[in-house]
Design a protein that fits this description.
The protein has helices at 6-35, 53-64, 67-71, 83-95, 119-129, and strands at 44-48, 74-78, 108-111, 114-117. β3 (108-111) and β4 form a beta hairpin. By secondary structure, it is an alpha+beta fold. The chain is elongated, with a radius of gyration of 24 Å. Helices cover 54% and strands 14% of the residues. A 4-stranded mixed β-sheet has the order 2-1-3-4, with helices on both faces. α2 (53-64) packs parallel to α5 (119-129). InterPro entries: Thioredoxin-like_sf. Keywords: Membrane, Transmembrane, Transmembrane helix. The chain crosses the membrane at residues 12-30.
Length: 131
């Protein structure tokens, strides 16, 4: 039988600590995705950037068709300068199962679990909402 030494005890304690940390980390990764749910909302959210020409087209359309915003309320969220809005956009994109590894394009419209990308599809959607 091997003699118990301080070195053996240190190795045993270190191994147990390593396994505990490893299991805790794996549990944290698995549990993180289950606890964070984005609630569906009935409001129309338009994510945009001030530097985006396609976003500008949507805004110009809304300005020239004011009746749209008289019928429906649109919440605008700028994503380049506002970190909270950027995080919110990413959550919505993931909810719609978009690949966010290379960023998320704007304009991006979110409504009742539906995600719409691009100026023309967004304009078409908003127009249909007011008919």
């Amino acid at each position: 039988m091997e003699h118990i030494t301080k070195k053996n005890i240190s190795i045993l304690v270190g191994s147990i600590l390593f396994l505990f940390i490893l299991l805790y980390g794996v549990y944290g990764l698995i549990g993180a995705g289950q606890n964070k749910k984005v609630k569906k909302t009935n409001e129309i959210i338009l994510y945009y950037s001030e530097e985006c020409e396609h976003c500008e087209k949507v805004e110009d359309y809304l300005v020239s068709h004011r009746e749209i915003e008289q019928k429906i309320q649109i919440k605008r969220k700028e994503v380049n300068k506002n970190k909270d809005n950027s995080v919110d956009l990413e959550e919505k994109a993931l909810m719609c199962e978009f690949d966010t590894t290379r960023g998320i394009p704007v304009p991006f419209l979110y409504y009742k679990g539906q995600c719409i990308l691009g100026d023309t599809p967004i304009i078409d959607f908003l127009t249909k909402q007011t008919l």
